[in-house]
Design a protein that fits this description.
- The chain contains 6 helices and 10 strands.
- The strands form 2 sheets. Strands 1, 2, 3, 4, 5, 6 and 7 form a 7-stranded antiparallel beta sheet that branches.
- The protein has a domain at 106-256.
- Helix 5 runs antiparallel to helix 6.
- It is an alpha+beta fold.
- The N and C termini lie far apart (152 Å).
- It is globular and about 50 Å long.
- 43% of the residues lie in helices and 23% in strands.
- Residues 43-53, 72-95 have a biased composition (Low complexity).
Length: 257
Amino acid sequence: MLKNLSIFSGLLLMLSCLSCNQLTDTFKDTFKEKTDDKKEETPSGTSSTVTSSVVIESHVSADTVSTTYRYRSSGTPPSSGAAGAATTTGASGSSRGTAAKAAFLMDEAGLKAAQASLLALPAYAGKKMYLYDDIHAYDDGRINLQLRHPDNPEYVDAYHYRNGRWTGPEPVQLSVRDKVEQKMIPLDDIDFASMARVYKNIAEKSATIEGAKTPTHIYGIVQEKRMLWYPASISGSRERYAISFNPDGSVKRFFRE
């Protein structure tokens, strides 16, 4: 009886071991199938780095992308030739424009043309024009002056010349203490080209004086119904000279102070 019990127990143990082995093999086969399935679901050759790159590039503008593409394709940084040429042209054009404006004070023909266009203002058609108080010309092509009103002699208007044309009138406020009549001079008695002669004479004298600079502003002031041109002095680093002019812009007096 005891012998039969031992045999029976041995058979049960063998069956249990066999079941465990089958269970283990079944688990391994199942795990392998799931692993293979995951591999099949992942696209071949795709990595997280590429995905990140795509996301970054999607936020870049079209211009930046095209520039980056050209750089990567050629293997060298993009050339700045086109932009450089535009900058050079712009700088050159600006220099020429500045030089042209700076020459305005010595341009007798340009100053005469400005005066002719002023005399042709429709408001003064058939009427005598009078300059009031002063006139100012600048190297950048501007002229500022004041004229007696065409209809009311007690009024004065300001006019401005810039970019080849006159703008105005702008009313000027006067005081009862202003000696208006004494500050008036017929516009026909003034030659705008005189300002160019004043500038040229000052420039020539300045060239002989150490440290002296040519002016960027020529102006005239009406005193006792006659025009006096300025600047009236030239300052150098070591010397100072007084200068005065005739109505036509020629030098009247020049001496060291």
